Amino acid sequence: GDSEASGGQANSSGTNYPLLKLTRIDNGLTAFLPSNPAVDWTDTSFISESIESLPFGRYLASVTVNGIPSYSQSFGLSTFTESVPGKPTGVIAVAGNGQATVSFNVPSSDGRSPITGYTVTSNPGNLTGTGASSPVIVSGLTNGIQYDFTVTATNAVGTGVPSAPSNLVLPSIFYQLDITMTGTGAGTVTPDSGSIVWAGNSGTASYPTNTIVTLTATPDGVSLFSGWSGACSGTGTCAVTMDAAKSVTASFAPQLLAQTIGAISFIPTTLSVGGNTTASATATSTLPVSFTSLTTGVCTVIGTTVTGVSDGICTIAANQGGNGTYSAAAPVTANLTVIIDITTPSDGTLTVISGNSQIKLVWTAATDNVAVTDY
Questions:
Q1: Are strands 305-308 and 299-302 parallel, antiparallel or unpaired?
Q2: Torsion of CA 253, 254, 258, 259, to 10 degrees
Q3: Would you give the distance in Å from CA 255 to the centre of its chain?
Q4: Once rounded to an integer, what is the mean pLDDT over residues 202-223?
Q5: Which residues pair with 159 in a beta bridge?
Q6: What pLDDT is stored for residue 61 in this prediction?
Q7: Are 207 and 186 in contact (CB under 8 A)?
Q8: How far apart are CA 179 and CA 232, in angstroms?
Q9: For residues 81 and 157, what is the distance between their CA atoms, to the nearest angstrom?
């Protein structure tokens, strides 16, 4: 075993041809290997022929040219023994309906033999599941009973030691929660437990029976949350009790721009009973403004025309209800005094017609006599 290995050559070489010199450090035995004929050597690169059955131990390898060493490197050969794998780590269990899904990390050592499979064992019950990689499903569990799990790895030598136990899980009947986001705005919906799997604006999640899930809707920077429908309502958080399959919808709308209405003006600026004036006002959105009377016993409004009904204070309100871009404006009001128009009557026309021992007086009233009380 400690003699020069078969195939070794004398410690000489043709002029300028390199040789690999192997020297056993503990006993000085030496072997020379020429360059591999299938690979050309250069001034900076050299690959030797292979050598079989090199005994275990430490060696000094050097490249020689014309018997002169040019580079040396020591190395050791030792025996390797295959063993069972190490234990898996990071074991995490997730409960399902009568089952659990167990994930884990591979062992740090495979025992120098490839791992062929993993076994997951429940506690209690010693129910098992097997697989070639993580995760592994363990079925046949009883709903309502807590379980933890250990994992072992197996190779050609055998099965390694179990991992540390996983977290405790409680298998249960699971119900599906469907979430839909709708509207022309945008935002997100997040649960306080579990996770939602989204496909576009539709998402699903599964929860054990009687789990209370709280959903929060958050609009993006240019949207507003309009509210919930389905299993929830309102605009706050949505709490859903999963005692059956449930569905909720979150609606988002664009964030509307603000607008204001300027002061109301009247042409003419006075209003009498029975008379009319025209109201006008402008919104910053340039959307049309509508007018209403807040004192219909004193004045009325049709379109922009204000009509005096009786003497008093007439209050007119200007409104703009908004649209898909602008929010409704705050109403603006203005007061106008309605008066009774009293005009001094004209004398009219008096005609004298003479007759037999008498005269006849004919008087015609002026047309501008308003509210004449006596003649």
A1: antiparallel
A2: -90
A3: 19
A4: 94
A5: 154
A6: 86
A7: no
A8: 11
A9: 10
Contact 45, 17 (CB under 8 A): no
User: Before 135, cis peptide (omega within 30)?
Assistant: yes
The rounded percent of the chain whose pLDDT value lies above 70 is 89
> What's the pLDDT tens digit per position in 295-334?
999 999 999 999 999 999 999 999 999 998 899 999 999 9
Distance of alpha carbon 58 from its chain centroid, rounded? 61
Compute the distance between CA of residue 299 and CA of residue 303 in angstroms, rounded to an integer: 13
227, two tokens: 């509210």
- 137 and 127 Cβ atoms separated by less than 8 Å: no
C-beta atoms surrounding 92 within 10 Å: 15
pLDDT digits (tens, 9 = 90+) for 177-192: 999 999 999 999 999 9
Q: What is the 3-state secondary structure (H, E, C) of the chain?
A: CCCCCCCCCCCCCCCCCEEEEEEECCCCCEEEEEECCCCCCCCCCCCECCCCCCCCEEEEEEEEECCEEEEEEEEEECCCCCCCCCCCEEEEEEECCCEEEEEEECCCCCCCCCEEEEEEEEECCCCEEEECCCCEEEECCCCCCCEEEEEEEEECCCECCCCCCCCCECCCCEEEEEEEEECCCCEEEEECCCCCEEECCEEEEEEECCEEEEEEEEECCCEEEEEEEECCCECCCEEEEECCCEEEEEEEEECCECCCECCCEEECCCEEECCEEEEECCECCCCCCEEEECCCCCEEEECCEEEECCCEEEEEEEECCCCCCECCCCCEEEEEEEECCCCCCCCCEEEEEEECCEEEEEEECCCCCCCCCCC
Taking only Cα atoms into account, the Rg of the chain, rounded to an integer number of angstroms, comes to 51
Q: By C-alpha distance, which of 171, 163, 164, 166 is closest to 149?
A: 166
Find out whether 228 and 217 touch, Cβ atoms under 8 Å: yes
Could you tell me which of 292, 278, 279, 284 has the C-alpha nearest to residue 328? 284
